[in-house]
Fold this protein.
Amino acid sequence: MWLIWTIVIGLLAGWLVASIVKDRRAGLVADLFIGMAASIFGGLISKYLGLGRHSLLGRLSISALSAIFFLIVQQVVKRS
């Protein structure tokens, strides 16, 4: 059940970050995929660090921050 909620929150985080960072041209599917990956990554990292992520807003914020991190890494890799 955790994985299903993580994917749903990741989709929401990917859409949210894509609407904030408008100058990207990756496309909606890529943004949603990045959001899902970031949600899983952020959830695992916050679990191992002991950060509270029990509320919807907490999980969404961790996922959004992870998605922003993924987008920054993607832009750095793409430029090199």
